[in-house]
Request: fold
Amino acid sequence: MYSLGLVLLECLTCQQAFPGDPLQSALARLIEDPSIPSSLAPEWQMLLAAMTARNPEDRPSSREVTQALQDQAASRAKHKVDAALIPSDEDARMEAVRRYAILDTPADGAFDRITSLAARLFSVPIAIVSIVDHDRIWFKSHHGVPVEEIGRDAGLCASAILQDDVWVIENAPEDPRTLANPLVAGEFGLKFYAGAPLKSRDGYNLGTLCILDHEPRVLDASESATLRDLAAVVMNVLELRLDSRTPQLPGPS
Reply:
């Protein structure tokens, strides 16, 4: 089960669990635990940690692993994403999302202050910092709404990351781009959406800073610029945190 866990880990990360020549790799397996990236979904982290537990008695049985993998597949099937919502650079974009290691992290005052400020500036009840995962849209900050994630459905954040600029829906129930979105067609009753993409320094849209309202409205050029600037502030925070985790090479002596 331990070896199978390492194979699964390497398949998910596309990296060798214990790099080096065969002897180095074998010795490392004896004295070190494999590194399980925090960027992996929590259910993968728990399964891999159990499969590679140092004590064999703590490892799951083959039946338990099979059931866990079946549960994972069933969960993914529930969130099938329309191919039209997948950017051409999706693999590289998701690699960028994982690089920032933000998915499923705890609430954070830095981002909560930005969404609170956005709600006040635009006089809207809801403002969100969203990150678009492979089959869901996860909310790093969600001012005015208790939901932490939604499906990657067309019309809102999933469509906004396909754009280079602010994506605006002025009256969602009458807009063909959003008619089928659950937040529009369901009890939530969304009418207005505007989202500015969170673009990384290497050009990948990780998610959005978006504002929502239960009433139709328009967004003028000045307001679009403000939303764009607030999205840039979100990205500045993410970039600074990424840089703080990245080892810096020494400068020339």
Summary: The chain has two domains: 2-78, 84-245. The chain has a mean pLDDT of 85. The CA atoms of residues 122 and 223 lie 8 Å apart. The radius of gyration is 21 Å.
